[in-house]
Amino acid sequence: MPGFLSGPVCLTVVCFLSWSLRSSCAQILADEVSDVQYGRLGSNVTLACGKSKIRIPVVWRLNQSSALPWHKVTSDGALLLLNVSHSAQGNYSCYDSDGFLLHVVKLMLGHPPGLLSISCQVPNHTHVRCSWVESVKTFLPSMYNASFRGNGQEWTPCIVDVIHRHCDVHQPAFWLTIHTLRITQTNGLNSETTFAQFSLHKLLKPDPPESLSVQEIAGYPKRLNVSWNFPSSWPIHDAFPLKFQIRYKPQGSVYWSEISSEVSSATIYDALAGHLHQVQVRARDEVNIDSQWSEWSALLLARPWSAYTTPDPEEDLPNNVFPFSSKPETFTTKPHNVVPEDEGNLGLVILLVLFSVVILTTVLSLIFVVWVRQKQRDHVTKQELASMVKMKSMPI
Amino acid sequence: MKLLLDSSSSLLFSLLLAQLPVFTSGSPVPQRRPTDMDKLSNQTKNLMKLTQELLRDHAFDSDVEPHRFRSLPEMSNRSANDLNNLELKPTLSQLHTDLKLYEHHFEWLNKVSKKHHHPAVPKLVEMIREIKSLINLLHRQMLKVEAPRVTPATPSLPPHLPYHFDVLQSSHELLQHFKLFCDWAYRAFISLKPKVTVTAVQ
Fold first, then answer.
1. pLDDT in tens, A334-346
2. Which of these three, A182, A203, A224, is where a domain ends?
3. CATH of segment(s) B35-201
4. Which of A352, B58, B128, B161 sits CB 3.0–4.6 Å from B120 for a disulfide?
5. Highest-scoring range by mean pLDDT, A324-333, A373-382, B25-34
6. Per-residue pLDDT tens for A75-127?
7. Which of A151, A289, A366 comes nearest B65 by C-beta?
8. Distance CA A80, CA A17 (A)
9. Pairing mode, if any, of strands A143-150 and A156-157?
10. Do the Cβ atoms of A372 and B77 come within 8 Å?
């Protein structure tokens, strides 16, 4: 009787246990696979069927399918995948001969990290942003750890943005000769550290000037007033002066004219009357001659003031058939202290005429004075002679 | 006749007087006299130019890991933010001390360059003269604002440079450092300019 009783009880327990095991393993499959194994593409990868010694034979499945890539099952139940390719990636599960799930593992395939190609942007003296590109496509998720230092300094963290693959340093010790960035890339297969050395003062490149505006000047058909704002990333402080270069050309011309400025405005004095002009501006640190010019700002079109509102027929010419300027016309002028050409010339002529009149009058007056003095002297001499003659004729 | 003479003389005088506004209006923009701080910043810019020329002509075009000079002015603790909050007197004193240190280093470099008959010697002599001139200008400004003068510690200089290459390397290293120092000093002088005006008004 006890044997009879114990038989069905045991059977029930075994059935319950196998049911509960099945349901728990199904739960594992439905959820995220916790065990991840990484393998190198093109190599042989061994997947063990759990940690403990497993009775053989075992059955392996990939993504619940019995179709497996080129493989062997070893004597201890491990799956040896040969010369793996991307198609071998997925969730592997092993079962015992009774169909019980024993182990699940996610296989991810890729390459170990290689050296990174690093470049840094320095838009001002307070911020450095370094970005990188992998020289080897790893196909695996990576972690990056970046540090930065100037020569003779301790390493400080460079704050990493994994998605955009860049890191930022704020308030670096800018006035040092050499700076070094160290980035360690780690993935499931290995880690690799890349060092990059550079000089911040040579990388300094402001962002382009902003809010470019070009205005006509009423009454002046050859002038354009250009103004802009400092790049918003550039500190507005006496210690960080910028210099600017403005280039312009009539639309359709191939030759740019250039002027420079140290303030955020300039006047073009030699625009082509009645024509649409393209204008751009760029900036550079005024002190550091090793620094770089910013990119040019976006093109802006403007026409100088015109007395007539009827459109100029020449304006309808296509852009590439510009009828003027067959020679390069690039020159540089400073907008400061430039005397407006029309009034300046007129004023200069008046000034010269006045000056000539004054000089002429002065010379004439001097001649007159000298003549008068000479006359007076002659007169005095004659008087003296007469008195001497008189005196001689007087009896002693 | 005397009356005529007198009147002609006064006419001449009036004409000369009339010329005065003509001559004065000859220069359209009245020239502002440079302040002492302008002189300091201009002289610093001049030194930057000289340094650049020396680097271009007498050094090699690569950034070397510095190792020779241990007692150059410390630049690792100076950031762009510091330039926003400079105090007049301590900054002038610090710049004076730094310049004295550079003067010592350049004199040393000049001495070793002479030994090796380096062609940069005339330019180095000019550089030392210009540094001295900047130090004197700065000292005058320090006296005006009563900034204390700090004596720099004696620099530890490399004892012996056996090869011409060593001279080149040292020259490159020192010039690179000095160029960056001048960049910082120039920015410091233009930042301090309004503060000197305020001090002068008080």
1. 333 333 444 445 6
2. A203
3. 1.20.1250.10
4. B58
5. A373-382
6. 888 899 999 999 999 999 988 888 888 889 999 999 999 999 999 999 999 99
7. A151
8. 31
9. antiparallel
10. no
